[in-house]
Amino acid sequence: MTILYYSPGAASMLVHWLLLELGIAHELRAMDFATREHKRPAYLALNPSGVVPTLVLDGRPMTEAAAIAMHLADTHPQAGLAPAPGDPARRDYLQWMLHLANMVQPLFRIWWYPHEVAGVELADSAREHVRPRIEEAWARIDAQLAAGGPFLLGDAPCAADFYLVMLMRWSRNMPRPATDWPQLAALARRMKARPSFAALYAAEGLEEWA
User: Fold this and answer.
1) 162-177 tens-digit pLDDT
2) What is the mean pLDDT of the chain?
3) Is 63 found in the same domain as 39?
4) Rounded to an integer, what distance in angstroms lies between the CA atom of residue 11 and that of residue 53?
5) How far apart are CA 58 and CA 34, in angstroms?
6) How far apart are CA 116 and CA 164, in angstroms?
7) For residues 38 and 52, is the Cβ–Cβ distance under 8 A?
8) Which residue spans within the chain are E strands per DSSP?
9) Phi, psi dihedral angles at 180 (to 5 degrees)
10) 3-state SS, residue 88
């Protein structure tokens, strides 16, 4: 049994979307953030960081959204969501996955929870500091899509495109959402047209940015 511990719209969204895209049977277990269920001993035994996602595969928990996404793509090569080892495109794929995980996603943590790094008094300053860095990331990726798109690796989507669109969704209420950049907006339209996206929204009860 494959089990996904998730919260609607959180980082677990990437894993959930790929499970649907790949047709992997799974069970969903929602974590109630309001009651801090994700910080209780039972869940911390699976994921010591107390965050989502956690994917239980063959009885073993796996954490970190990017790592899970790469594992799912690699173990389902028929879907073509990850270049195989030895493929020249593999290095670009790995670079984009880690760029999104290490450089872009952490910026959103600061945007949403600026007090964690700057304290309550300087929270607004922290957000204003991080905002241009997020916008710089969108500009860089938009340029990549303009030069070599329509997807990050060219003509077909890879797991990094799913990851990117999840992060783009997170920017929807920012002063400049990712869709202000034309190539990113076009990518979002393509990815949101996939049947798996509609299934994801239905399963997680999401409506905004549909």
Assistant:
1) 999 999 999 999 999 9
2) 96
3) yes
4) 6
5) 29
6) 24
7) yes
8) 3-6, 27-30, 54-57, 60-63
9) -70, -20
10) coil
Regarding whether 48 and 101 lie in a shared domain, the answer is no
Domain region containing 120 = 89-194
Residue showing tokens 């969108």: 138
User: CA 178 to CA 141: how far, in whole Å?
Assistant: 10
- Count of structural domains, the chain: 2
What pLDDT, on the 0 to 100 scale, is given for residue 112?
Answer: 86
Contacts of 12 (CB under 8 A, 6+ apart): 4, 5, 6, 52, 53, 65
For residues 150, 163, 81, 103, the Cα torsion angle rounded to the nearest 10 degrees is 90
109: amino acid identity, one letter: R
pLDDT of residue 153: 98
Please give the Cα distance from 200 to 191 (Å, whole number). Answer: 12
Radius of gyration for the alpha carbons in the chain, expressed in angstroms and rounded:
17
- The strand pairing partners of 60, in sequence order, are 57
pLDDT in tens, 78-89: 999 999 999 999
Non-local CB neighbours of 142 within 8 Å, separated by 6+ positions = 181, 182, 183, 184
- The total number of residues shown for the chain amounts to 210
- 75 & 98 share domain: no
CB-based contact 76:99 (threshold 8 Å): no
C-alpha dihedral, 27 to 33 to 35 to 36, nearest 10°: 100
Among residues 208, 199, 207, the alpha carbon closest in space to that of 22 is found at 199
Instruction: Report pLDDT digits (tens) over 180-210.
Output: 999 999 999 999 999 999 999 999 999 999 9
